[in-house]
Fold these 4 entries.
Entry 1:
Amino acid sequence: MLLASSFGLLAFSFVLSAFSSFPPTYRIAKLKYNGGGDWYSDRTALPNLIAYCNANLKTNFYPEESIVEVGSKEIFNYPFVYMTGHGNVVFSDQEAKNLRLYLTAGGFIHIDDNYGLDKFIRPQMKKVFPELNFVELPANHAIYNQKFKFPNGLPKIHEHDNKRPQGFALIYKGRIVCYYTYECDLGNGWEDLGTYPGDSQETRTKALKMGANLVQYALTQ
C-alpha cells in the first residue's frame, strides 16, 4: 500500500516494476465515482493504451484495466488512475480526503473530459485541493516532450464545439498530481479503431502517443 511517509521508495518501486522484464506487477485503473455520471465510458481505451505502452515504452503493466472506487484504499495500489465521463460527479468528504492522500503520496490521475464533464469535475477537484487551481500547461512542458514530441501541445482528437484542446494541471509542491484534458477526448482516440468512424488511424496513433507520454511522465516525474 502506498503511504505518504514512504513516497520516495514507493515511487521508485513503481518505476522499477512498471519498466521491469519480470512478470507484470502493477496495473492501470479506471476511477469509479458516484453522482450518476458514466464513469465506465471508453470501454476499450485503457487496454489499448496499456498494450501501446508495453510495446513502445517497454512498460510491464497487466494487459487489462482495473476498476477502483474513489474512496477505496485499493487506489493506493495504482501508479496511474484514469477518469472519464460525460455527466455528474460527486465526491463525498471521505472520498475527497482519500483521493487527496493518494495524490499527495505519489499517485497520479488523468481526468479526460468526454464532453460534458467539465462543470462537474472542477468543483469536485476543488474539494480535493481547495488551495490549488488548474493551470494550463504550455506547449513546451515536459509532458509533451517525453518519448513522443508534441510541439504544439495537447493534440485535438475528437471535435465537439470547435474549441482548442487544453491540458490543465493541479501542481502540489512542484509535482503534477492531476492532469486534465479538456476539449480533446484523448480516451476516444485510444478506443478500438472504428469505434468512432470519424477518427482516422493517424488520429488514433496520435492519441496513443500522447497517452504514452502521460504514463511515462507520471512514472518518472
Note: The chain has one domain: 4-220.
Entry 2:
Amino acid sequence: MRFARYIALLLSSAAPAVAEDFSLSWPVECTLGDTCFIQHYVDDDPSGAASDYTCGKSTYNAHKGTDIRLRSRKDMEAGVKVLAAADGVVLGLRDGMDDVALNHANEADIKDKECGNGVVIRHAGGWDTQYCHMKRGTISVTKGARVTAGTPLGEIGLSGRTQFPHLHISVRKNGAQVDPFDPDGQITCGTPSQESLWDIDIPYSAGGVLAAGFSPTVPSFDTIKAGTADQPLAPDAAAIVFWTYAFGGQRGDILRMIITGPAGEIIRHDAVLEKDQAQFFRATGKKLRARQWPSGQYDGTAVLLRKDAMIGQSAATFTLP
C-alpha cells in the first residue's frame, strides 16, 4: 500500500479518543523554547474559525497536527533528528522530495504530497503517529521496522507544503484525529484540559522570538530565515542595525527593540503589528554620525509584548575594539 493511502486513512473522521495507556515522548532532538519552538497546534474548532486547545490563536483552520519548528534553515542543514514518539511499527514512508519552501512554482508538484517526506508509525491500541516535512535523504527506517520511543526516524526538513523547517506530527486513534494536548476533546475556554498524551510537561506557546542579531544594513527576510543575517560590524560601519525574527504575532502586539552601547542607550523602538503574522521580522538602528563608533560592548534586546505581557525575548551582543 502506498504512503498516500496511509495518509488518506489517517485523515478519516471518527469519534474523539481517550488516552488510555498511550503516551508520547518528545519527538525532536532539540531544546524546546531555545533551539525549537511550537508554532502551531491542532485546530480544535470544528467550524470555519480556528482555535487551539487553550482557545488561543496558535493554529489555523483545519490544522491537524502540532508544528515543532526550528529557528532557521541553517539549523535544519546542521541536522536535527526526528524521533519516534512511542513504540510501534513503521507502516509507511516517503522520501525523495526536495527541501524547498512552498511557492507558486512548486505548488502543483506537491499536490497530494503535502506531508512531504515522512513516516507513519502504527502503535498498539489503534494509535498512529505521522511525521511530516522531513529532510530529503535522511529517513533512516524501513517499512515494517519495529521502533521504540526515541528511535531516530530522520531529520527535520522543508519538504512538502511548508514555509519554514519544522516537524508536523499528527496523532490518530482508529483513524480519528486526536489533539495530544487535549485527547478527550473536552475544552472549556479559560480552563484548558489538564489531560495530555505527552509524558512531559510542555508549556503553551502563544508566539515568541526566534532570533536576534546585528548587521551594518537591514537584512533581507530570506537571509534571516536562512540564519545568515548576523554580520560583523566594523568601527566605521555606516550604521548599527538590530534585527529580530519572531513568530505567532497578533495584531496589536509590540516588538520592543533596544540597543545600548558603551555610553548607554542608543535607540529604543516599539514596532506595533498591524495584522496577525505567522512569522515576521523587524529592525531598528542608528546611522554613524562621527568618524567611528565608540569602542566597547553593544547589546541588543528584543521583547515581544501582548497586552503588556511578555511572550518572547532574545538578545545579541558584539564588541568593537
Note: Confidence is low (pLDDT under 50) at residues 1-16.
Entry 3:
Amino acid sequence: MSVLENWEQWKDFLGNRLNQAQNEGMAQNVVSDVAYQVGEYLSQQVEPKNEQERVLAELWSVADEQEQHAIANMMVKLVQNQG
C-alpha cells in the first residue's frame, strides 16, 4: 500500500522527511520551496487517493502561485505540529 492511500500515513511520511531534512540542516525557506515543488508534482502527476488529498488537489487547482506556497507551508506546519 502506498503512503498516499492513507491520510495518516501520508502525514507521518511527510513529518519523517521533514525531521530528516531539518536534522541535516536544511533551512526553513528551502523546506518551503521543496514542499511547494512536491505539491506541484503531486497536482500534475498523482491522482488523489483519499478525500483529504482530493480537497487539497481542488484547492491547489484554483490557487495562484502565492496561495499554493501558502498551502504547502500549511502542510509543513501541520506535520511539524503533529511531530
Note: The CA atoms of residues 27 and 81 lie 18 Å apart.
Entry 4:
Amino acid sequence: MKKSIFYIALSAILFSSMEVALKAVSGQFNAIQMTCTRFLVGGIVLIPFALHALRQRGLHLTGSFLKRSLLLGLMNVVVSMTLYQLAVQNANASVVAVLFSSNPIFVTLFAFLLLHEEIHKNQVAALLLQLTAILVIINPAHMQAGLLGILLTLAAVVTFALYSVLAKRGCVEYGSIVTTCGSFLCGSAEMLLLILLSWAEPVASLLGRVGLSSFARIPMLSGYTLQDFPVFLYICIGVTGAGFVCYFKAMEISSTAMASLVFFFKPMLAPIFALLFLRESITPEMAAGIVLMLAGSLAALVPGLLQTRRQQAVSIEPPEAS
C-alpha cells in the first residue's frame, strides 16, 4: 500500500506540473509536434529500463505485444491526445484540464466492465464528490466553454480511461515500464506517419478548408532553443516518461481505481503550481472545487489505509499461549 501511494503521489506531482511546463514553451512548438516529440523521446529514454525489466522477467516481445502496443499507442498518443488538443482549441484550457480530471469515473466503470474489478461504496462516494467538484469549478450556469469543446474533452477522457484499463493487462504480464515504453514508441510512430501525411497537398488543403490548418504541414524540427531545452527535457522525460511509468506502476501493484487517484490530486496541485510559477489566481469556485476533490481523495484512500493497518496489526499480533 505504501509503495502504491508513493507512485501515486509522484505521478500526481509530475502530471500536475504538465500545464505549467507546457505553457513555458507555448508558442515555440506546434501542438501535435510537441505531443509526438514528448512521447517519442519519453519512449526512447525508457528503452534501457524496459530491456532490463524484460531480462528480469525472462520474457521476450511477441507479435501480440506489438499488436497491443499499437492499439494502446493509437488510443493514447494519437486519439486521446489529439482530441485533447482539439478540445483546448475549442474551450478554455482550465475547463479542459478540470474535465480531464474526471478520468477516474470512466476508469472505474471500464475496470468494472472489462477487468471485473469491484466498485466499493467509498469509491462511489469519491466519484460523486469529484463530479460535484468539477461542476463547481466549471460553474455550468456561467460556463464560457462551448459545447464542442466539452464534447471533445469528454471523448479524450473516455479514450484515455479505456487506454488505462486495457494497459492494465499489459502491465500484469510485462510490467509497467515495458508496457509504457511500447505504447509510447508505437503511438509516436503512428503519429509520425500522420504528420508525414499532413504534408501531402490534398490532405493539407482539406485540413485548411475545414478550419484545421494547425494539423496541416506539421513541423518536427522547428522551435528548439538552448533556453527552452531544460523545460523540453522535463516535459519529455519527467512528465511523460516518469509520470506515466509511476502511474502504471501504481496500477500494477494496486488497482486501476487506486491508480486513478492521480486525477483526484491533479486539480488540487495544478492550481497551486500555476499560482507559484505563473501567478495565476485561484478563484472561489476553484478553491471550493479543491476542497471537494480533497474530500473525494480521502473517501477513496482512507478505507484502504485502515484495512491495511488492521491487517498489519493482525499479522504481528503474538499467538495466544496454549
Note: The chain has a mean pLDDT of 82.
